């Protein structure tokens, strides 16, 4: 990634795209390199423009943001994805995060928070906080069948079983929404050591980002 963070905006509402473009334009280290109106256009734009971060609306005609996010997982060097949502009406956020999104933004998020969120995911971090993750998972899991939850719990426990005790501690800390710096304090490691552990956890658990680790940690609890 270059010093300038290249961003692609994906939303079927041109006014939303214009607003996000204006917001991100205030960040000197951020450049909006393109826009797309649906998931199919987004995949084409990613191939052409190679953005570092995609702001992806979930609900769009044609290919929606969920399908597009899932498709991006198969692309080598895929950008980080932030899903855009209204939360109260969206029951598909967790699926987007499982598909590889690095986090989510409410559409009424303050401008400075949007800019900082883009910077965070561009650095390879996720947009998680313990309170937000708890509310998010509770909101979505309410609508899932018990059998689905049982199957996911079994898979998650199998994946966690691949980890050493120390790696498991790091995974649990990631599941709490802690940053690398916070984990270093919590577990008495250097930040560089934490980064190395997080990398190993991602590899062993077949995850593309920290959000997926957090979800698996949650799923393992049944």
Written account of the structure:
- With 222 residues, the chain is of the alpha/beta class.
- It folds into 2 domains: 5-127, Response regulator (Rossmann fold); 139-220, Arc Repressor Mutant, subunit A.
- It has helices at 14-24, 39-49, 65-72, 93-98, 111-122, 130-141, 146-160, 165-175, 180-187, 191-204, 210-220, and strands spanning 5-10, 30-36, 53-57, 80-85, 103-106.
- Strands 2-1-3-4-5 form a 5-stranded parallel sheet, sandwiched between helices.
- Helix 8 (165-175) packs across helix 9 (180-187).
- The protein is globular and about 50 Å long.
- The model has no long low-confidence stretch (mean pLDDT 85).
Short description:
The protein contains eleven helices and five strands; from the N terminus they run βαβαβαβαβααααααα.
